[in-house]
């Protein structure tokens, strides 16, 4: 009787579907110059092995000696858990026993963090204890749908940002994706560029060996720890893209080489980052392997014409193939040289903008195994520490008997800080982090905290229900596909009683125009927002059943809600 194959373990299933792909290829990226575009050739895949026929397998079985009997399973003590299905899967828990968290602070090759020695006045974004474990700069990927934004992030970081079932089925990004990567440079100046630049995952040691032939004995130096914000490119997900733009320090603008330039969302996303005053942009001409050299040169000219007069006018244009990993090392070099790390405020009270929130508990968990809610986002200023008391505003929003909006802030405590798989003792402004709290997980499940602000108790801004803004409107609609040389429709003026969508930080909320005079408007919000005077916001109007970006504004004043004091 033939022996049945064992069932694949949980980790192997996850690796197969690529949902949480942690294995990254160590293939060195190849450089692609304009003269090589036309002569690009791909090597054929290796031939598949055919399964042996039943007769040949029976003959082999008759010739070979019978296999030795399997050893008996080891005897386990009654209070010890059973062995796991493979070496990469954690062992299952014994009944009634809680899993002790394995500390990742002792991961090999990473700097240790010690709260007792923390002095925020001496910290900077390139401090070894910071950059070793946490990303310190946020870079967004923007551009039209299916131009390769998620593929570029995977080519650089090795992390698949498309993780949810509906995203995998439709092969598009729906929620904001996130992935961290470390960028290194060979310490030997003779190592040829751009091959001397290399990107690895966030858990890589701080000084790995160079893999360029002839320089294998040379160490590499960690220059940047980058957090990528993967934005959706579909037109109906423009609000999600604007939420991600609120935390970007730089952007990679993806333009597919096999399509005309510009596509609708290419121009709309570029206008959005221009509103957010994003100065540092790198343009990636993707899918260069699908076209001839002459077509690539013609499209490069179209790109240069498109970016004239925009914030990306002086941006470099890099031809790449994200699928084949061509010129990925060139992207790494440009990120290091063209996108500087912005000035950070480490001494102010911490203030973090929430862009994702989760309930990490699985159905059927034991009561003593339930963990608190997790908030994901980027710290704007200050330093968060483990065991620190925090406040989330606006918190729980409800209406009283008379229909007036009331909000109750959420007070909690930080129990863990993570940057991907790297455990932190403190987190600084910059890359995306996960904050484990003691909050009820029902408050954080399914992104319920998105748009809220997390920070030190008593230090957060006011909560507004009405805003007075100074606004500026675009001349024409962006993101609308037109026929031939037909121009997009003009943006009409704001009218009293009109419904708009506002993007303030990572919060998307509706607003009714109460009054308009010249370039000033008074807006009544459908949901309270924690913000401050001087903050910028994006204005969108419903056009043909889709929200379209029509302009931007700045908060001048507003009506605030009275927030109950902290009971602790």
Automatic annotation (TrEMBL):
Domain Tr-type G residue range list: 134-343
Family: Belongs to the TRAFAC class translation factor GTPase superfamily. Classic translation factor GTPase family. EF-Tu/EF-1A subfamily.
Pfam families: eIF2_C, GTP_EFTU, GTP_EFTU_D2
GO biological process: formation of translation preinitiation complex
Polar residues bias locations: 23-36
Matching PANTHER family: EUKARYOTIC TRANSLATION INITIATION FACTOR 2 SUBUNIT 3 FAMILY MEMBER, EUKARYOTIC TRANSLATION INITIATION FACTOR 2 SUBUNIT 3-RELATED
Function: This protein promotes the GTP-dependent binding of aminoacyl-tRNA to the A-site of ribosomes during protein biosynthesis.
Low complexity compositional bias, start-end: 52-63
Name under which the protein is recorded: protein-synthesizing GTPase
MF terms (GO), sorted A to Z: GTP binding; GTPase activity; translation initiation factor activity; tRNA binding
A Gene Ontology term for the protein's cellular component: cytosol
Disordered as annotated region, ranges: 1-110
Keyword Hydrolase: yes
Organism field: Leersia perrieri
Start-end of Pro residues biased regions: 64-76
Reactions mediated catalytically: GTP + H2O = GDP + phosphate + H(+)
InterPro entries for the chain: EFTu-like_2 (IPR004161), eIF2G (IPR050543), eIF2g_C (IPR015256), eIF2g_dom_2 (IPR044127), eIF2g_GTP-bd (IPR044128), P-loop_NTPase (IPR027417), T_Tr_GTP-bd_dom (IPR000795), Transl_B-barrel_sf (IPR009000)
PROSITE patterns associated with the record: G_TR_2
EC number: 3.6.5.3
